[in-house]
Amino acid sequence: MVALDVSHATRAARLGKPKAEAMRGRVTPQAVSGHFRRIKWGVLAACLGLYYALPLLRWDRGPGQPDQAVLVDLAHVRAYLFGLELWPSDVILVTGLLVLATLVLVLVNALAGRVWCGFLCPQTVWTDLFLLIERRIEGDRRERLRKREGPLTLRRSAEIGVKHALWLLVAVMTGGAFALYFADAPTLLRDLATGAAPAAAYGAVAALTLTTYLLAGHAREQVCTWMCPWPRLQNAIFDPKALSVAYRDARGEPRLPAKRALESRARGEPAGDCVDCAQCVAVCPIGIDIREGPSFACINCGLCVDACDSVMARLSRPHGLIAYAPWEAIEAERAGTPAPRWRALRPKTLALAAGILVIAGAMITTLALRTDLAITSVHDRNPAAVLLSDGRVRNGYAVTVANRSLQERTLVLSIEGLADAEVSVVGADPHGRIVLEAGARRPLRVLVNSGAQENRDVAIVAADVVTGATRRTADVFVLPAR
């Protein structure tokens, strides 16, 4: 049984942090350099670059079509992703994408715990950016703590003002970039700057600006610990075989200062590699002590690994006192038994990978079989059928045709299942043709007269007069109630 716990303020006080910081529960992480910190900087640059640049990328879809590579077109109820165009009828693909993302997240958790939270989560990325700005202006951890408890001088006021101004600038850029995904980016940028943008655009920018400023600048680790549901799920899906940041207490205990540890080893007495420097706590963006065992708040960012390895290097001790390791290996070291090797391929991960492949394959197949011509119909309900003076019966249908291609199409409608059917289309030209512009959809009124003597299953067919491509929708032809 593994207990996952966290108590920031208590640990802060026990580790000798300033009383005010411990009482407020504020976490002021120290800068650190190392392998995982470099990875995090690379991921941060890639994620922010992708987020801000995507709306500005162009993609030629032909005349009359939006040329923005990634666009959610609310006005025309469709979305564009490079060469892919999604319509409301493609909601199954969106659902599949959400299920796929969930399975990928669970698979990542089975492999390396909350590594998503530590490297790729937007809260982590923007918090790292805000912390970088704070350090550049106010200094590293000790200097920030000293200034925080010191008097409010003119210089200190200027630093605080510049910091918050830059935070707000980043937050505005974040909100503005989000709004660009829903309209033509160059046009919306110009309209936002000149005051000509719609109120909804300013509202979206304001909302994202406020949430980014508050969550990344002020809430920070509180979001990861208390607001996000993912830590709570850790209690249910914690996997002792998954890689997670762990303190190898069998090697690190008993903790002694470096000089006393050397003296103790010289006398042949036990001395752990941990010198109780608390660097692992000082650099932690969540403010936890990884030496106390697994914590549901740990985001597996690896910064404590970098900090501990740097201390071990200075003491000429082996790296890896704090490392990514499966919890079962930590328990094996405690028991003095050989530590099992971490295995990525095991029944749980293979089953999750298989599920991901099945869903991804189904989505790809659905996309491959999707046509660029669609038709739907809804039968009239009241009245469902009308008896004409010549003895025939008329049924009415509300039909919608959609042209999902990038070229104009000319369609004709017909009906299958009624040999003597007479079809008239309200909205067609005198020759019964419907001209659909590229990407257009049109509602039509279809009337069908027939001398059928019984209810029939029918299909309304839309045919392209140029290519011969057809699409059909099943419906019924009914007789009046007797």
From TrEMBL:
Q: Which GO terms describe its cellular component?
A: plasma membrane
Keyword list (alphabetical) reads: 4Fe-4S, Electron transport, Iron, Iron-sulfur, Membrane, Metal-binding, Transmembrane, Transmembrane helix, Transport
Query: SUPFAM superfamilies, alphabetically?
Result: 4Fe-4S ferredoxins (SSF54862)
Show the Gene3D superfamilies listed in the entry. Alpha-helical ferredoxin, Immunoglobulins
Q: Does the keyword Ribosomal protein apply?
A: no
GO molecular function terms noted in the UniProt entry: 4 iron, 4 sulfur cluster binding; metal ion binding
Give every 4Fe-4S ferredoxin-type domain span. Answer: 264-293
Q: Where is the signal peptide?
A: none
Q: Which InterPro entries match?
A: 4Fe4S_Fe-S-bd, Cyt_c_oxidase_cbb3_FixG, Electron_Trans/Redox, FixG_C, Helical_ferredxn, Ig-like_fold
Pfam families membership: Fer4_18, Fer4_5, FixG_C
| TM helices/strands, residue ranges | 39-57, 91-112, 165-183, 195-216, 350-369
**Would the keyword Iron be found if you checked this record's keyword annotation?**
yes
PANTHER family membership:
FERREDOXIN-TYPE PROTEIN NAPH
Q: What is this protein called?
A: Cytochrome c oxidase accessory protein CcoG
Q: Which organism is it from?
A: Salinarimonas ramus
Which gene carries the instructions for this protein? fixG
